[in-house]
Design a protein that fits this description.
This protein has 314 residues and is an all-alpha fold. Helix content is 74%, strand content 1%. A two-stranded antiparallel ribbon has the order 1-2. It starts with a helix and ends with a helix.
């Protein structure tokens, strides 16, 4: 089933789009970057938008938003609605190879819906821990996978940093804007150490790029998904897929332009000791650790990480 669905999807995209846009569309939909143009891949990496090309919690959010909007108008029973939505998400995860990040996102989404249906409080930290445990049971070696580490540490960072950042920002701007900025900053903070350790670089402006582009990318993704489904009707296939092709061309050009801002990239290789100490500092600084002067401790550890990394790099 998986092979036939992916083969049909690729055939539809290749038949209606240019090669560059078709490979980008296929990568965005299913996380397969094998046929993606190397330059396009580098541009998304340089701008901190590489997660768009690897199926993750972001894609689960897009699918939930799109499918949930339709299901709520068809299914009134909340338990049936939740069951159907989770089943569709699992089917999508099957097509994408059950990557650690998408399994994490589906488990956390399912736990959120269960909590809402029962009228209980949702605990993001426990949901993240349970998702990590399930991933570890499925594949104990996932803890050495950079995708697994980035997914879980970024979400941990959002859970720990976003609430206090949002609290301070809400005093100066609307709540929705403050929430979006808080999530973008928190995700960037969570990915810093892993990016420096594995990729030897971070994009200083990636939080801004994500804040500006993710809303547009979410719309492009949903239009692409709907267009692909409509292309099941033979006559409409090539015509309807022309719409996301135009949008993907624009996205490619914009990302290429942003990737030229080389000064926004910091290159500082980390040694393993720096990674561990830095992660301890990040956890101390989150909203989950109730100790006195926690920001002071985190600051000292952060400075230590930078100094050790600089010395190790000489």
């Amino acid at each position: 089933i998986k092979y036939n669905v992916l083969k049909w999807s690729k055939k539809q995209l290749d038949g209606a789009m240019n090669q560059k846009e078709a490979s980008l569309a296929y990568s965005m939909l299913f996380g397969d970057k094998t046929l993606l143009d190397g330059k396009v891949k580098d541009n998304f990496s340089e701008t901190g938008l590489a997660h768009v090309l690897a199926v993750s919690g972001l894609h689960v959010g897009f699918i939930s938003l799109l499918v949930g909007f339709i299901l709520k108008r068809i299914i009134k029973n909340k338990w049936v609605y939740s069951s159907v939505l989770v089943t569709i998400l699992i089917g999508y995860a099957y097509l994408c190879g059950f990557s650690a990040s998408i399994v994490r996102a589906i488990i956390m989404s399912a736990m959120l819906m269960i909590a809402q249906n029962l009228g209980d409080q949702y605990d993001g930290l426990n949901a993240l821990g349970f998702a990590g445990l399930v991933n570890f049971i499925i594949n104990p070696l996932c803890v050495f996978n950079v995708g697994f580490l980035l997914s879980f540490i970024v979400v941990l960072s959002i859970l720990g940093f976003a609430p206090p950042i949002k609290y301070h920002l809400e005093k100066r701007m609307p709540a929705k804007t403050a929430s979006a900025i808080a999530v973008a900053i928190s995700a960037w903070l969570g990915g810093i150490l892993i990016s420096l350790f594995y990729f030897k670089k971070i994009t200083l402006l990636s939080s801004i790029f994500n804040l500006l582009l993710i809303p547009s990318i979410s719309i492009i993704f949903m239009i692409l998904m709907v267009a692909l489904l409509i292309s099941l009707i033979p006559i409409l296939g090539e015509v309807i897929l022309g719409v996301p092709e135009i949008l993907l061309k624009g996205l490619n050009k914009l990302v290429e332009l942003l990737a030229t801002l080389h000064e926004s990239t910091l290159r500082l290789p980390l040694i393993y000791f720096s990674l561990v100490v830095g992660m301890v500092g990040m956890i101390i600084a989150t909203d989950y650790v109730f100790i006195r002067k926690k920001w002071a401790y985190a600051g000292v550890l952060t400075i230590g990480v930078v100094l050790v990394s600089l010395v190790a790099n000489i």
